[in-house]
User: Fold these one by one.
Assistant:
Number 1:
Amino acid sequence: MTTPHACGTIGQLSRNDRFWRNTTALDQEVSRAWQSPWSEMDPVRNPFVWTDDGEEEAELVALIAAMVPGPRSEVGWEAGYRFTDAATRLLMDRYGRWVFGWSWAIGEGGGGGVVASWCCVSHSVGEPETTAAKVVASLLEWRDWLEELAEKFALLAPPADADPEDRSWHLERAATRLVTLVVDRTGAECGWYGLCRTVLKWFLASTGMEPEDAERAVDAAIGGRFKSWTRPSLVLVDTVGEDLAVGLTGRRPYRDY
């Protein structure tokens, strides 16, 4: 069984300070991608063409395999992180900034994400072709997640003509369902709440809210109540949903039961 450790949020990924002192401009660009708004993630605005003939996959695997630093036994953590950053930059240049989350893995290895095909440098970086295939599988998995989110955002968005009370009801429903989705997909492992916070911000941005306003609203609603390695109770999920709705509309959502 994995021993729980404290985990950071999306904006507080735990990497050794020595590594960050040695980062290049390329690494900083990759780091900034973690703060990308929904407009750069939205599959509708950022199309992704993946052919079924295998040519694109074969070419991408070959490009990434050539970047793998060496056998697992010889790869230090710094070289491994530089590889993942370089792979991310390659994917960003090829497809767009939406790719940044390909390594946001489930559990401690990825800090509480949703990607199952990747774990971490120590477990996922090995033979070049095998490693490259994992990167590609993780990329496709991340894209599927974004497409699923886009569908749910569209279904959960308040109608444009909703009055404040109706809007409050829709916002509460959206928040509780999205939090539950993230909990289910991450298993509430490690810093799962980082992804949860991001998904809620993206949802609000998808409804037309400015990213900065969405961030403030989500942070106020969660209020530090979600914890690492801990599934939130149904009561807490409902409370966060209601607090978000009230904070944005000034109205408590009506009850349809």
Note: The chain has two domains: 10-143, 157-249.
Number 2:
Amino acid sequence: MKTEFVPQHDLPRDYSGNCGWGDEPDRNEASMTRVITTHELTKQFKTHTAVDALNLDVPKGHVYGFLGPNGSGKSTTMKMILGLTQPTSGDIEILGEPLTRASRTKLLPSIGSMIEAPPGYGHLTGRENMRIVQDMLDLSTAQIDHALATVRLTGQENKLVRNYSLGMKQRLGIAMALARNPALLILDEPTNGLDPAGIEEIRMLLMDLASQGITVMVSSHLLDEIDKMASVLGILSSGKMIFQGSRDQLFEKSVPDLIIETSDPQAALAQGLTATRVPEGIRMSGIDKDQT
């Protein structure tokens, strides 16, 4: 028989919902300008609440990691921010302006996005796909060339997209989002399905974009990957924000895993981990006698 005592360590136990930006002395007021703010943002589908009273703060010039398991409400939130679906209630502010049907047309040129699957027609080349974007948005060839160079597709743009690797398709999608030089880039799971080399390419690209002043909001269900690129985190669970703040704030308040194995859990409890003295956050799991 084996019993494990594992403390809950993924999130700070005392998190209160306050970002606490003022506690960081190296951040000045200008650097913390909010690019996206939501207030009590909620989306319901019949009896299911996909996003539940979400208060989101995305600071300017950062990679904001929007983290949560599949089905936690990340994509729905991004679609509401882009005006692709209407919230049930709550408010959204983008680049200092409330998002309304009237303001959406004005705001969209400042926003680039890639939601869910990367765009692109497989029977066309990368350049031909970009030309569609160029014609739709009335962009110059120089802007298209710059976007392709930014995502490191120069020299690959004349290949058919169906012959691209998944990583190249993701970068083409990001190039389309970058074509009009947006202030805000919203990407839904851009590393999903990529091999380690492809993930690293996307990670370095997004960090480089943030260093140029572009605010990047990127969703993922992988904490390890988001931790490597994002300076600010928002973590969703069942549509609710359970943490928002810097990486340091998350990990400073976390506690490490502790696993205790014993062949006699009752004796172990008697030595100090009694039912009334089990520390907060520690849970016990094991095999019942009738299962052995």
Note: The longest strand covers residues 34-45.
